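Form 7-S
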Amino acid sequence: MNSRTFGRACFGLLGICMIARVAVAFLPAGPWSPSGYQCGSYYLFLPASRPHTCTADAAYGEGTRVANRLDFLRYRREKFTVDARGYRNLPVIGKPSVILYGSSFSLGLSLNDEETIGVQVARESGLLVFNAANVLNTALSADPIVRAAGFLKADKGLVLMEVLNRDAYTYAGRVPAQRAEPLQSLERRIKNPFAITRVSSLLNMVQDDRLFPNPDRFRFPEEELADGRHMLFYDQDKSFFEKPPDPAPTADAIAHLGADLARHGLKLAVMLVPTGYAVYYPLFRRRTGTDGGERYMTSLAAKLAGAGVPAFNLLPVLRAAAARELPAGRLVYWPDDAHWNPAGVRVAAHAIAPWLTDAVQ
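Output:
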Protein backbone atom coordinates (compact mmCIF):
# COMPACT_ATOMS: atom_id res chain seq x y z
CA MET A 1 0.00 0.00 0.00
CA ASN A 2 1.49 3.35 -1.04
CA SER A 3 1.37 6.48 1.11
CA ARG A 4 -1.50 8.02 -0.86
CA THR A 5 -3.72 4.96 -0.45
CA PHE A 6 -2.82 4.73 3.22
CA GLY A 7 -3.70 8.41 3.73
CA ARG A 8 -7.07 7.96 2.04
CA ALA A 9 -7.79 4.91 4.22
CA CYS A 10 -6.97 6.90 7.38
CA PHE A 11 -9.18 9.83 6.33
CA GLY A 12 -11.97 7.41 5.44
CA LEU A 13 -11.78 5.71 8.84
CA LEU A 14 -11.74 9.08 10.57
CA GLY A 15 -14.83 10.15 8.59
CA ILE A 16 -16.70 6.98 9.54
CA CYS A 17 -15.86 7.56 13.23
CA MET A 18 -17.05 11.18 13.04
CA ILE A 19 -20.31 10.21 11.34
CA ALA A 20 -20.90 7.47 13.91
CA ARG A 21 -20.21 9.88 16.78
CA VAL A 22 -22.69 12.43 15.38
CA ALA A 23 -25.29 9.72 14.75
CA VAL A 24 -25.00 8.44 18.33
CA ALA A 25 -25.56 11.97 19.61
CA PHE A 26 -28.99 12.05 17.94
CA LEU A 27 -30.18 8.68 19.23
CA PRO A 28 -33.18 8.75 21.61
CA ALA A 29 -32.36 8.86 25.30
CA GLY A 30 -31.34 5.43 26.51
CA PRO A 31 -28.38 3.10 26.93
CA TRP A 32 -27.03 3.74 23.42
CA SER A 33 -27.16 7.52 23.59
CA PRO A 34 -24.95 10.12 25.31
CA SER A 35 -27.89 11.08 27.52
CA GLY A 36 -28.02 7.60 29.02
CA TYR A 37 -26.13 5.90 31.88
CA GLN A 38 -24.94 8.22 34.70
CA CYS A 39 -23.37 11.67 34.61
CA GLY A 40 -21.28 10.54 37.56
CA SER A 41 -19.69 7.93 35.31
CA TYR A 42 -17.99 10.81 33.49
CA TYR A 43 -16.69 12.32 36.73
CA LEU A 44 -13.18 10.90 36.40
CA PHE A 45 -12.82 12.36 32.91
CA LEU A 46 -13.89 15.95 33.46
CA PRO A 47 -11.42 18.78 32.84
CA ALA A 48 -10.03 20.24 36.06
CA SER A 49 -9.79 23.87 35.03
CA ARG A 50 -13.42 25.02 34.86
CA PRO A 51 -16.92 24.34 36.24
CA HIS A 52 -18.81 21.65 34.39
CA THR A 53 -22.41 20.43 34.33
CA CYS A 54 -23.62 17.16 32.83
CA THR A 55 -27.29 16.35 32.36
CA ALA A 56 -28.50 12.83 31.58
CA ASP A 57 -32.12 12.57 30.53
CA ALA A 58 -32.16 8.79 30.91
CA ALA A 59 -29.66 7.82 33.58
CA TYR A 60 -29.72 4.32 35.01
CA GLY A 61 -27.82 2.20 37.51
CA GLU A 62 -24.35 0.76 37.58
CA GLY A 63 -25.77 -2.69 38.27
CA THR A 64 -27.90 -2.52 35.13
CA ARG A 65 -24.90 -1.57 33.02
CA VAL A 66 -22.20 -3.84 34.46
CA ALA A 67 -24.36 -6.95 34.85
CA ASN A 68 -26.32 -6.10 31.68
CA ARG A 69 -29.57 -6.60 33.57
CA LEU A 70 -31.88 -4.63 31.31
CA ASP A 71 -34.83 -6.13 33.19
CA PHE A 72 -33.87 -3.71 35.99
CA LEU A 73 -33.59 -0.73 33.63
CA ARG A 74 -35.45 2.31 35.01
CA TYR A 75 -34.59 5.70 33.51
CA ARG A 76 -34.22 8.80 35.66
CA ARG A 77 -32.97 12.33 35.02
CA GLU A 78 -29.64 13.32 36.52
CA LYS A 79 -27.77 16.62 36.74
CA PHE A 80 -24.16 16.58 37.94
CA THR A 81 -22.28 19.85 38.54
CA VAL A 82 -18.67 20.35 39.61
CA ASP A 83 -16.97 23.63 40.49
CA ALA A 84 -13.73 25.02 39.05
CA ARG A 85 -11.67 22.91 41.49
CA GLY A 86 -13.50 19.74 40.59
CA TYR A 87 -15.65 19.43 43.71
CA ARG A 88 -19.38 18.79 43.46
CA ASN A 89 -20.85 21.99 44.81
CA LEU A 90 -23.52 24.45 43.81
CA PRO A 91 -22.59 28.15 44.14
CA VAL A 92 -22.62 29.30 47.78
CA ILE A 93 -21.97 32.59 49.56
CA GLY A 94 -19.97 32.62 52.76
CA LYS A 95 -17.34 30.50 54.49
CA PRO A 96 -18.39 26.86 55.03
CA SER A 97 -18.53 25.60 58.60
CA VAL A 98 -18.52 21.93 57.55
CA ILE A 99 -16.25 20.15 55.05
CA LEU A 100 -17.76 16.88 53.81
CA TYR A 101 -15.27 14.18 52.85
CA GLY A 102 -16.06 10.65 51.75
CA SER A 103 -16.83 8.22 48.96
CA SER A 104 -19.21 8.20 46.00
CA PHE A 105 -22.12 8.14 48.50
CA SER A 106 -21.13 11.63 49.67
CA LEU A 107 -20.13 12.71 46.18
CA GLY A 108 -23.64 11.78 45.10
CA LEU A 109 -23.21 9.35 42.24
CA SER A 110 -26.62 8.47 40.77
CA LEU A 111 -28.16 11.62 42.31
CA ASN A 112 -29.12 15.09 41.12
CA ASP A 113 -27.19 18.07 42.47
CA GLU A 114 -29.98 19.01 44.89
CA GLU A 115 -30.30 15.44 46.19
CA THR A 116 -26.75 14.93 47.53
CA ILE A 117 -26.12 14.41 51.23
CA GLY A 118 -24.15 17.67 51.48
CA VAL A 119 -27.01 19.75 50.09
CA GLN A 120 -29.63 17.93 52.16
CA VAL A 121 -27.66 18.23 55.42
CA ALA A 122 -27.14 21.93 54.77
CA ARG A 123 -30.86 22.36 54.18
CA GLU A 124 -31.80 20.45 57.35
CA SER A 125 -29.21 22.02 59.65
CA GLY A 126 -28.79 25.55 58.29
CA LEU A 127 -25.02 24.95 58.19
CA LEU A 128 -22.95 25.80 55.13
CA VAL A 129 -21.46 22.51 53.86
CA PHE A 130 -18.65 22.22 51.32
CA ASN A 131 -18.60 18.88 49.51
CA ALA A 132 -14.97 17.77 49.15
CA ALA A 133 -15.89 14.12 48.56
CA ASN A 134 -14.27 12.17 45.76
CA VAL A 135 -14.50 8.39 45.43
CA LEU A 136 -13.87 5.65 47.97
CA ASN A 137 -10.31 5.94 49.27
CA THR A 138 -9.61 3.73 52.27
CA ALA A 139 -6.02 4.96 52.71
CA LEU A 140 -6.73 8.03 54.86
CA SER A 141 -4.68 11.22 54.77
CA ALA A 142 -5.26 14.68 56.21
CA ASP A 143 -3.60 16.33 53.21
CA PRO A 144 -6.56 16.64 50.77
CA ILE A 145 -8.84 17.80 53.59
CA VAL A 146 -6.35 20.38 54.87
CA ARG A 147 -5.82 21.59 51.30
CA ALA A 148 -9.55 22.10 50.84
CA ALA A 149 -9.77 23.90 54.20
CA GLY A 150 -6.89 26.13 53.11
CA PHE A 151 -8.50 27.53 49.98
CA LEU A 152 -11.82 27.82 51.87
CA LYS A 153 -10.04 29.66 54.72
CA ALA A 154 -11.88 27.30 57.09
CA ASP A 155 -9.08 26.98 59.62
CA LYS A 156 -11.35 26.10 62.55
CA GLY A 157 -14.12 24.16 60.85
CA LEU A 158 -15.62 20.71 61.26
CA VAL A 159 -14.80 17.82 58.95
CA LEU A 160 -17.70 15.40 58.45
CA MET A 161 -16.15 12.24 57.09
CA GLU A 162 -18.24 9.45 55.63
CA VAL A 163 -17.02 5.94 56.44
CA LEU A 164 -18.60 3.30 54.19
CA ASN A 165 -18.85 -0.27 55.48
CA ARG A 166 -17.35 -1.77 52.34
CA ASP A 167 -13.67 -1.94 53.26
CA ALA A 168 -11.26 -1.64 56.16
CA TYR A 169 -9.50 1.75 56.40
CA THR A 170 -5.81 2.42 56.94
CA TYR A 171 -3.81 5.59 57.58
CA ALA A 172 -1.55 6.67 54.72
CA GLY A 173 0.03 9.78 56.26
CA ARG A 174 1.34 12.33 53.78
CA VAL A 175 0.13 12.06 50.18
CA PRO A 176 1.86 13.83 47.24
CA ALA A 177 -0.13 16.86 46.13
CA GLN A 178 -0.81 15.53 42.65
CA ARG A 179 -2.50 12.49 44.18
CA ALA A 180 -4.29 14.33 46.95
CA GLU A 181 -6.19 16.75 44.72
CA PRO A 182 -9.31 14.97 43.44
CA LEU A 183 -9.17 16.29 39.88
CA GLN A 184 -5.48 16.54 39.11
CA SER A 185 -4.89 13.14 37.48
CA LEU A 186 -4.21 12.90 33.76
CA GLU A 187 -7.44 11.02 33.14
CA ARG A 188 -9.54 13.89 34.44
CA ARG A 189 -8.10 16.26 31.86
CA ILE A 190 -9.50 14.29 28.93
CA LYS A 191 -11.67 16.74 27.04
CA ASN A 192 -14.22 14.24 25.76
CA PRO A 193 -15.91 12.73 28.84
CA PHE A 194 -18.13 10.43 26.78
CA ALA A 195 -15.58 8.32 24.95
CA ILE A 196 -14.39 5.72 27.44
CA THR A 197 -17.70 5.36 29.28
CA ARG A 198 -19.64 5.06 26.03
CA VAL A 199 -17.34 2.32 24.74
CA SER A 200 -17.68 0.52 28.06
CA SER A 201 -21.48 0.80 27.96
CA LEU A 202 -21.67 -0.49 24.40
CA LEU A 203 -19.36 -3.37 25.29
CA ASN A 204 -21.74 -4.33 28.08
CA MET A 205 -24.60 -4.31 25.58
CA VAL A 206 -22.96 -7.04 23.44
CA GLN A 207 -21.57 -9.00 26.41
CA ASP A 208 -25.10 -10.20 27.12
CA ASP A 209 -24.41 -13.94 27.53
CA ARG A 210 -25.93 -14.45 24.08
CA LEU A 211 -23.59 -12.68 21.67
CA PHE A 212 -20.61 -12.77 24.03
CA PRO A 213 -20.27 -13.93 27.66
CA ASN A 214 -20.47 -11.21 30.30
CA PRO A 215 -17.54 -11.67 32.72
CA ASP A 216 -19.02 -9.10 35.14
CA ARG A 217 -22.54 -10.47 35.43
CA PHE A 218 -21.97 -11.78 38.93
CA ARG A 219 -20.57 -8.51 40.28
CA PHE A 220 -24.17 -7.51 41.10
CA PRO A 221 -25.95 -10.51 42.65
CA GLU A 222 -29.72 -10.40 42.89
CA GLU A 223 -31.68 -10.76 46.14
CA GLU A 224 -35.43 -11.12 46.70
CA LEU A 225 -37.10 -8.97 49.36
CA ALA A 226 -39.94 -10.03 51.66
CA ASP A 227 -42.54 -8.43 49.37
CA GLY A 228 -41.28 -10.27 46.28
CA ARG A 229 -39.37 -7.30 44.86
CA HIS A 230 -35.85 -7.96 43.55
CA MET A 231 -32.76 -5.76 43.95
CA LEU A 232 -29.19 -5.88 42.66
CA PHE A 233 -26.38 -5.52 45.20
CA TYR A 234 -22.64 -5.01 44.72
CA ASP A 235 -20.78 -8.28 45.35
CA GLN A 236 -18.07 -6.56 47.43
CA ASP A 237 -20.76 -5.21 49.76
CA LYS A 238 -22.12 -8.71 50.22
CA SER A 239 -18.73 -10.30 50.92
CA PHE A 240 -17.78 -7.55 53.41
CA PHE A 241 -21.10 -8.00 55.20
CA GLU A 242 -20.70 -11.76 55.46
CA LYS A 243 -17.09 -11.64 56.67
CA PRO A 244 -16.38 -8.21 58.19
CA PRO A 245 -12.84 -7.60 59.48
CA ASP A 246 -11.84 -6.50 62.94
CA PRO A 247 -13.02 -2.85 63.20
CA ALA A 248 -10.16 -1.89 65.51
CA PRO A 249 -7.60 -1.03 62.75
CA THR A 250 -10.20 1.14 60.98
CA ALA A 251 -11.02 2.93 64.25
CA ASP A 252 -7.29 3.51 64.87
CA ALA A 253 -6.80 4.91 61.35
CA ILE A 254 -9.72 7.32 61.79
CA ALA A 255 -8.47 8.41 65.23
CA HIS A 256 -5.03 9.06 63.70
CA LEU A 257 -6.65 11.18 61.00
CA GLY A 258 -8.57 13.11 63.66
CA ALA A 259 -5.34 13.85 65.53
CA ASP A 260 -3.66 15.12 62.36
CA LEU A 261 -6.63 17.33 61.51
CA ALA A 262 -6.68 18.73 65.05
CA ARG A 263 -3.13 20.01 64.54
CA HIS A 264 -4.57 22.13 61.71
CA GLY A 265 -7.46 23.42 63.83
CA LEU A 266 -10.01 21.05 62.27
CA LYS A 267 -12.37 18.84 64.26
CA LEU A 268 -13.35 15.40 62.91
CA ALA A 269 -16.81 13.84 63.13
CA VAL A 270 -17.79 10.63 61.36
CA MET A 271 -21.00 9.36 59.79
CA LEU A 272 -21.03 5.59 59.33
CA VAL A 273 -22.83 4.85 56.06
CA PRO A 274 -24.15 1.33 55.42
CA THR A 275 -24.28 -0.32 52.03
CA GLY A 276 -27.60 -1.30 50.54
CA TYR A 277 -26.88 -4.94 51.30
CA ALA A 278 -26.50 -4.15 55.03
CA VAL A 279 -29.67 -2.04 55.06
CA TYR A 280 -31.91 -4.57 53.31
CA TYR A 281 -30.49 -7.77 54.83
CA PRO A 282 -33.28 -8.06 57.48
CA LEU A 283 -35.83 -7.76 54.65
CA PHE A 284 -34.41 -10.55 52.48
CA ARG A 285 -36.77 -13.45 51.90
CA ARG A 286 -33.86 -15.84 52.46
CA ARG A 287 -31.04 -14.93 54.85
CA THR A 288 -27.88 -16.89 55.53
CA GLY A 289 -25.37 -16.49 58.34
CA THR A 290 -25.39 -13.77 60.98
CA ASP A 291 -25.94 -10.03 60.78
CA GLY A 292 -22.32 -9.09 60.17
CA GLY A 293 -23.18 -5.55 59.10
CA GLU A 294 -24.96 -4.65 62.33
CA ARG A 295 -22.21 -6.19 64.46
CA TYR A 296 -19.40 -4.45 62.57
CA MET A 297 -20.93 -0.97 62.50
CA THR A 298 -22.03 -1.03 66.14
CA SER A 299 -18.57 -2.12 67.23
CA LEU A 300 -16.86 0.49 65.04
CA ALA A 301 -19.08 3.27 66.43
CA ALA A 302 -18.24 2.21 69.99
CA LYS A 303 -14.50 2.11 69.27
CA LEU A 304 -14.61 5.58 67.69
CA ALA A 305 -16.48 6.95 70.70
CA GLY A 306 -13.84 5.41 72.95
CA ALA A 307 -11.14 7.17 70.90
CA GLY A 308 -12.92 10.51 71.29
CA VAL A 309 -14.20 10.70 67.70
CA PRO A 310 -17.92 11.60 67.45
CA ALA A 311 -19.66 9.06 65.23
CA PHE A 312 -23.22 8.64 63.97
CA ASN A 313 -24.24 5.14 62.88
CA LEU A 314 -26.82 5.44 60.09
CA LEU A 315 -27.57 1.72 59.84
CA PRO A 316 -30.48 1.61 62.36
CA VAL A 317 -32.06 4.74 60.87
CA LEU A 318 -31.90 3.50 57.29
CA ARG A 319 -33.03 -0.02 58.21
CA ALA A 320 -36.07 1.40 59.95
CA ALA A 321 -36.85 3.58 56.92
CA ALA A 322 -36.40 0.63 54.54
CA ALA A 323 -38.83 -1.51 56.59
CA ARG A 324 -41.32 1.35 56.87
CA GLU A 325 -41.32 2.16 53.15
CA LEU A 326 -41.30 -1.36 51.70
CA PRO A 327 -45.04 -2.11 52.19
CA ALA A 328 -45.80 0.98 50.10
CA GLY A 329 -43.43 -0.22 47.36
CA ARG A 330 -40.80 2.45 48.07
CA LEU A 331 -37.06 1.94 48.49
CA VAL A 332 -34.26 3.97 50.11
CA TYR A 333 -31.50 2.55 47.85
CA TRP A 334 -31.65 2.13 44.08
CA PRO A 335 -32.73 -1.37 42.99
CA ASP A 336 -30.18 -1.33 40.13
CA ASP A 337 -27.26 0.51 41.73
CA ALA A 338 -25.06 0.26 44.85
CA HIS A 339 -25.92 3.77 46.07
CA TRP A 340 -28.72 5.26 48.16
CA ASN A 341 -31.53 7.04 46.33
CA PRO A 342 -32.97 10.50 47.14
CA ALA A 343 -35.34 9.05 49.76
CA GLY A 344 -32.45 7.37 51.58
CA VAL A 345 -30.42 10.59 51.51
CA ARG A 346 -33.33 12.55 52.99
CA VAL A 347 -33.64 10.04 55.83
CA ALA A 348 -29.92 10.23 56.54
CA ALA A 349 -29.77 14.02 56.40
CA HIS A 350 -32.76 14.43 58.70
CA ALA A 351 -31.16 12.11 61.25
CA ILE A 352 -27.69 13.64 61.08
CA ALA A 353 -28.59 17.35 61.10
CA PRO A 354 -29.27 17.82 64.86
CA TRP A 355 -26.21 15.74 65.82
CA LEU A 356 -24.01 17.68 63.40
CA THR A 357 -25.27 21.04 64.70
CA ASP A 358 -24.22 20.00 68.22
CA ALA A 359 -20.83 18.80 66.92
CA VAL A 360 -20.10 22.17 65.27
CA GLN A 361 -20.71 24.09 68.52
